[in-house]
Amino acid sequence: MNTAAIRQQxxxxxxxxxxxxxxxxxxxxxxxxxxxxxxxxxxxxxLHERAEKCLKxxxxxxxxxxxxxxxxxxxxxx
Length: 78
What we know:
mainly alpha, single chain
């Protein structure tokens, strides 16, 4: 998509968006580049442990179809 088409889509979005979406979009444009996502040292440690297990092949892997099926069945039970 070229820049002109993107601008047109953005204008269309802005013209039809509700107040909440406009506020979110404005916040993203104003602060998005400065925003840093942080986590606690404990959360970072869990992330590294999970990544290491994945790299070693110690995690269960699912196909996309299996993952979708699991999610659908979980939602039915809830």
